[in-house]
Fold this protein.
Amino acid sequence: MNSKDPILRDVVRKTLEKFKKLKVSHLTPEKRAKVVCFYLTKLCELDSVGISSATRLLTLTRPDLAFSYNGSSSKNLNFLGGIPTDERTEVNYQKLLEMFYSTKWYQSEEPKYPGPDKLIWKCRLALIDLLVYEHNNGH
């Protein structure tokens, strides 16, 4: 992404501001995934923004709703989701979101008291990357 382009930066900023304000707790996993992918598509439509950069931006904005989907994680994520390809597509990302949103783990109650458990809970989807990221050993 060309971060020196002020128009592109402004569009990204406005898109992420809207994404940050989303209220989705009342939505089904399928509708929630669809809403997140609407913003993913908006970012991917911008010049020089690919799915890796777009998902990273969404994850930094809402770690409760998105995870990074890049070349070092897509193989394991797709395997986890039963997706028979290593391709990173918006359709595959949406399927993975639906899968994660449907789990008891994701739907667990927010911890009542401040502390590390609450912080981890609020970032739980972003933390998936820790489990699936495949280091290339410097290559």
